[in-house]
Amino acid sequence: MKMDSEQVKLGIAPIAWTNDDLPELGRENTFEQCISEMALAGFTGSEVGNKYPTDPKVLAEKLELRGIKICNAWFSTFFANKPAAETIKNFIKHRDFLSAMGAQVIGCSEQSASIQGQDKAIFTEKPVFTETEWQKIAAGYNKLADLAAEKNMKVCLHHHMGTGIQTPAEIDKFMQLTNDNVYLLFDSGHIYYSEGSQAAVENLLNKYIKQIVHVHLKDVRPEIVARVRAEDLSFLTGVKMGTFTIPGDGVIKFEPLFKILAEANYQGWMVVEAEQDPALANPFAYAVQARKFIAEKTGL
Ligand SMILES: O=C1C[C@@H](O)[C@H](O)[C@@H](O)C1=O
Ligand SMILES: [Co+2]
């Protein structure tokens, strides 16, 4: 399915080079190596990792040399279990940094009670929000959306394993409770991991296609997910074992996803995000392979 390169841009996340959730993975990889290899592999966008310069001017100079733009950076919200003012204060700083970098979306995840970074069984110990918590979350995201709009930006929710907004029902609840200016970040890997079927991935994309403003292209190795489930392992143990990989290297069929996006005239970034152990999965080699796969399937 052909996609229009004027409308859809391709990025890649630094997490394959250096994993912020597991700093021992890729500690040796430098920021310069990471962005140079992204560019060499044919990507024009990146998200932000913890080795990136925090001064927008310095960061922009390094990226411009390589033809790369910042398209998003992860932001953690804690509306259910901390005072809203705390999240809002941090959000404004994050928003202003991303705005200075020219990004148009802000991908957020509700991290209250999240177990994604903890040594807990990912399939059985995730949080479930109470009605009061849902109300706090919805009010908080409505506020963030208004703050983002002040800079002509959009807030989108990253549904994520190990959080209270992981399953289709939880995503539906979030989208119903929030205003129309709160959008969705679609992550193919997280919805497959949660539900275990291609149908769930396609259903979510189809259902919210008009409200999806950012896409993470992530593939899943089902044999690793089966072990994580059978042995009650944590999310990060799974990552180290190879839960995720680049599109085209796992179980997800990406052709139907590209078709849904193209037919809906999706405009925005698609970001390859495949955290693996860089000592086992060379990030540059995987980036080149991912870029080739996307070119073959979309013409981008
Ligand atoms: O967008 C993401 C950011 C990472 O920190 C996270 O754990 C990863 O799985 C993801 O989808
Ligand atoms: Co993601």
Ligand kinds: the ligand O=C1C[C@@H](O)[C@H](O)[C@@H](O)C1=O, cobalt (II) ion
Estimated structural class: alpha/beta
Question: What's the mean pLDDT score?
Answer: 98
Task: Count up the helices.
Answer: 11
Shape: globular
Structure, briefly:
This protein has helices spanning 31-40, 56-64, 84-100, 131-149, 168-177, 188-195, 198-208, 222-230, 235-241, 255-263, 283-298; strands at 8-12, 45-46, 69-70, 75-77, 105-110, 154-158, 182-187, 212-217, 219-220, 244-245, 268-272. By secondary structure, it is α/β, with parallel strands linked by helices.
Attribute tags:
alpha/beta; TIM Barrel; nine-stranded parallel sheet; binds the ligand O=C1C[C@@H](O)[C@H](O)[C@@H](O)C1=O; binds cobalt (II) ion
Structure description:
With 300 residues, this protein is α/β, with parallel strands linked by helices. It has a single domain, classed as Divalent-metal-dependent TIM barrel enzymes (TIM Barrel), CATH 3.20.20. It is 42% helix and 15% strand. It is built from eleven helices and eleven strands. The protein has helices at 31-40, 56-64, 84-100, 131-149, 168-177, 188-195, 198-208, 222-230, 235-241, 255-263, 283-298; strands at 8-12, 45-46, 69-70, 75-77, 105-110, 154-158, 182-187, 212-217, 219-220, 244-245, 268-272. The strands form two sheets. A nine-stranded parallel beta sheet has the order 3-2-1-11-8-7-6-5-4. Strands 9-10 form a two-stranded antiparallel ribbon. α3 packs parallel to α4 and α7 (198-208) packs parallel to α10. It is globular. The mean pLDDT is 98. Residues 158, 187, 216, 273 line the site of cobalt (II) ion. It is an enzyme of class 4 (lyase). This is Inosose dehydratase. Residues 39-295 form the Xylose isomerase-like TIM barrel domain.
